[in-house]
Design goal:
Blueprint: H1 3-40, H2 44-79, H3 83-119, H4 125-138, H5 141-157, H6 162-186, H7 189-213, H8 224-254, H9 261-295, H10 301-327, H11 329-337, H12 344-358, H13 361-376, H14 381-405, H15 407-433, H16 441-469, H17 474-499, H18 504-510, H19 514-526
Length: 527
Amino acid sequence: MTLSASTDTILARAAFVLLLGNVLSRVLGLVREQTIAYLFGASAATDSFVAATQVPTMVYDLLLGGAVTAALVPVFADYARNDREFSALLGAMFAMAGVVLGGAVILLLLLAEPLVRILVPGFSPEVLDQTVKLTRLAVPAVAFLGFSGVVNAALYAGHRPYYPAFCAAVYNLGIILTAVFFVNRLGVTSLVIGVLVGSAGQLVFQAPGLWRMGIRPRAVLSHPGVRQILGLYAPVLAGLIITQLAIVLDRNLASRTGDGSIAAMNYATRLVQLPLGLVGSAIALAVLPLLAAEGGKLDTADFRRILSQGVRLILLLMLPIFALMLIWHRPIVELVYQRGAFDAADASATGLALFLYSLQLPLTGLDQLFIFAYYARKNTRTPVLVGVLGIGFYLAVALPLLQPLGMPGLVLANSVQNAGHALVMLWLLNRLLGGVGGAGFGRFIATIGVGTVFVALAAGGMLYVQRVLTEGGGTIGLLTVVVGGGGVLLLAYLGFLRLCKLPELTLLAEMVPARVRAAVQRSPERA
């Protein structure tokens, strides 16, 4: 098998597994948000929970979260061919993670109150006090998430994406079940208990993956690979510190825009992250080990080809979703959230936030792939520098719009920040590689662009029928438009691309395992 065929097949199969895992994870993530919205709405209690869990999440991202793709996967991939060395490196990383994460937990317990006061100073005294208590309760999740991240990277490097693909679903399930069973007894505290259950469940769920790989982490306190990881991660850490400061600034400003603003932003973020996870993250993670294998070579032809395939797959799937979310932002919010404590006012605020967040979708979908391309070439400094520039984009929009627009101004600033980051990364990669799209990219863009316009026009017509001619139609009307209509439009879009004989559809089809394709092809004959 040629290099081109083998890498395309690995990419497609890994992307399919990650897609399945992301589908389950994102569906459960929506169920989680629906559960929170039903029980607490867009309220001060929800704001408190979001802020409390933000603190351990930010610390995890600083210590290990950003290292998974930036340093751990590329370095682990170098050692994955030698089980003994891989086991030694993994043992050394566990030892270092234990020391760092243990110290972080102790510091967070001691500094929870001042950290919360910096993060959300606009909260009322009662909500602020509740947030401090919830934060202290959520702190141990840092350790669970950290160890899980190390295992996650090892499995990706060994081309075993099956466990990492589904571990996020375990996390979401832990929050859902804990909230449902304990909300009457514990109130909003049940959500934080769910975070602990879910984060611990991730680690337990992934552990058998290492065993099946034949990897037995050895008790080694030092390893040359650890120094390599730290060298790669140092620039990323510097960038993450700035990024987390930007998140603190965003939450700080949002806490001053009234109760429920942070909750509305969070609900909308979860919706826009659905296609980003299903398409952008799944394909980018599938591409990363392949790019890492080619990143150190002087000949960039295969590297550029793999990157181009990732770009095309993401755009092919992301553009029609982008059109649907822009046009159907309010029906989507109503269908997913509007019940229980989540009322029409909450739906209006969340719908506006979703519309503004959706503006960034195509570019943000590509951004993670662009960042991974630099990570694969052992260059972690460039994405960091571009990230600093992105914060400048955010401030340039957020500060002048905060007073007149409030929460929507902050959401728009976030979209400008993310889209601007992706555009700068695209420009740099074009200069570095002599092009990203590859041969025929112009025809590819024109074809999917025309298909996306058709989707947008049809979606607008469906929305008019649902809102004006049938006066909404209740939940049945929303389901018909968003689920039924959306499915029909996406199938029609793929049918149009097939009529245009778009070559990228072949790679898209390869994401489906051969046994499934064979079963589908045989079924008409049997009928």
